[in-house]
Amino acid sequence: MKIVALDIQTLFPEAEDDNCFEINEQELGRLCGADDELICCRNMNVNHFGSMERLNEAVATAIANADVVITNKVKLNKANLNAGIKLILVSGTGTNNITFADTDALGIRVQNCVAYGVNSVVQHTLGLMLSLINNITVADRHVRQGDWNRSENFCICRYFFPLELKSSTIGIIGCGAIGRGVAEAASALGMKVLLAERRGAQQIRDGRTAFEEVLAESDVISVHCPLTPQTAGLISDRELSLMKRNAYLINVARGGVVDEHALYRALTEKRIAGAATDVLTEEPPRENILLSDLDNLIVTPHIAWGSRNARMEIIRQMSVHIAELKKAATA
Predict the structure, then answer these.
(1) Is residue 226 reached through a cis peptide bond, with omega within 30 degrees of 0 on the bond before it?
(2) Cα 84 vs. chain centroid, distance in angstroms?
(3) pLDDT tens, residue by residue, 205-251
(4) Helix, coil or strand: residue 21
(5) How far apart are CA 184 and CA 125, in angstroms?
(6) Is the pTM of this model over 0.85?
């Protein structure tokens, strides 16, 4: 069986290293048996090829004789697929890079990975929240710039943090496995938890709180919903205006859920206390207003999902699907 991985380097810390696949040979070996051929591609992105047309040509060539195709962000559609492919594996949860009308027409099964990074994302959410509220990253940056050396006091008082989590409220938007995990962790820290109902809902379900009320009452808003037509721009000027001036926003969902220009305005005008995001609308970003040097903003490069445990679980799930395909082929 021929397995072609288009951008599997994103599972490893050595992704930028030319020897990434050799370094991680043992982990990659879990995907295939002795009689299988595993081909790992590099640079399957539009920046490398200069245009989507040339990228599609390169992808089509790479997967021409593949039984299994592994992708994370590489788009797969009629421009590069062929009927010989039996299985597409998405090395993540999101499948928005797959055109299902095209895979269905060719009879290609598509399988994503599920629930692999819940603990990892919960942990990163807490890390962002604590770093933001406790001024950890900004204080560290200014200490290294010499502010403490020049201080007239034994401490730099302007970095005192305003909020103790035990006496605060967290509002969670998106109550799937990750949202529930954050709720559990926040409760353990003594926080009051509000689970947001869908925006515009006519009825409030048991255990949920109206969307606008969550925004108004929470000291921390943590976003964990998927990006859909209904959630695109979910947090914009109006929603930010409902938040407390001393409240914080955390986004580890998708960049498009939060209106980045509205967030920038709210941060620079001090209409909210701060924000932290692990995601941006365009990734990698070429230009983005949130990459400005703001002391009340933390940006991390889409790494919340990437604990070693989570990445190895992705490989495990994909290996199971490949084994199932082999078993079906010999049945």
Answers:
(1) no
(2) 32
(3) 999 999 999 999 999 999 999 888 999 999 999 999 999 999 999 99
(4) helix
(5) 12
(6) yes
Pairing of strands 274-277, 297-299: parallel
Phi and psi at 218, nearest 5°, equal -90, 145
Question: What digits encode the pLDDT tens for the residues 32-81?
Answer: 988 999 999 999 999 899 999 999 999 999 999 999 999 999 999 999 99
User: What does the block give as tokens for 124?
Assistant: 């990163």
The residue count for the chain = 331
Is residue 212 part of the annotated active site? The answer reads no
Q: Which of the following is catalytic: 224, 254, 260, 313?
A: 254
Give pLDDT tens digits for 107-145.
999 999 999 999 999 999 999 999 999 999 999 999 999
Catalytic one of 142, 208, 302, 321: 302
Residue 287 DSSP class: S
Listed in sequence order, the residues at least 6 apart from 66 whose beta carbon sits closer than 8 Å to its beta carbon are 2, 3, 4, 39, 84, 85
Dist CA 118 CA 306 (whole Å): 10
- Please give the structure tokens belonging to residue 297: 């903003």
Catalytic residue among 283, 308, 316, 324: 283
254 is catalytic: yes
Q: Extract the runs of DSSP E, i.e. beta strands, from the chain.
A: 2-5, 37-40, 68-71, 87-90, 109-111, 169-173, 192-195, 220-223, 248-251, 274-277, 297-299
